[in-house]
Amino acid sequence: MNEERRRELGQFLRGRRAGLLRADLGLPPIGRSRTMGLRREEVAAFAAVSVTWYTWLEQGRDINASRQVLESVGRVLRLSVAELDYVLALGGHAPVHASGSRAIDDIPPHLQALLDALDFPAFAVAPDWGIAGWNAAYALLYSRIVQVDPSERNLLWLVFTDPQLRQMLPDWEVTSRHFVTEFRAEAGSRIGSPEHTALVDRLSAASPEFAGIWGGRGVQGFASRQRVFLHPAVGSLVFEQHRLVPSDAPELHFVLYVPTPGTPTKERLAGLAGR
Asked: In Å, what is the CA distance from 37 to each residue of 13, 26, 51, 82, 168?
């Protein structure tokens, strides 16, 4: 575990420990009124580890944290599945794709052909969340994608720095937070890599809003959900967002925007195509 991942693990565990309701674990308030936050010795006792060892873990010291012990700490801290996966990845107990956090400029031709066969917006995202490929329907939805410089063709970068895209998202505050917490959930094994650090530093410098969300250390696994876009030419478009991972290219994932039944989205997309 490299130094940055150890530091991130310690800070993440401290934040989750501080956010717990003591009553949820059957503990009385500290003093007369402090109802939130566990002491380190309480976490250590519940997780069956020594106070010294757990203190060192939160301090980011170079100690061996087994998968079993991290899972035990995760149960005490009431971590979600995504949060536990993040902790395990930081501790070196999750698969690390050979691609690391490298950028992927182009997706394999057979996967691009699959995107092209879809009549609804879809695009491929690399481990660094660079947009590696898209289809014609996605270019209709977000026309700037074909003009964006490859160095800026990153989903997080565009969400936080492109005014046009921001205007298209009526729930930008919710969507942007979703993206950052999902990105962090996937980034545990890459924390500390030069590429990952450079991307986060660049985003933080360009967007105080990104820096604030990233600093909150929220972690959330992907969940299919409704997405609404306000297109400047045809108005409201409502989709169901799904994600697929190609079995022969697991370093990529496809984001699919499927028109929501009962809305005029499909017809409005067809109208855009006919322009």
From this structure: 12, 12, 16, 21, 40
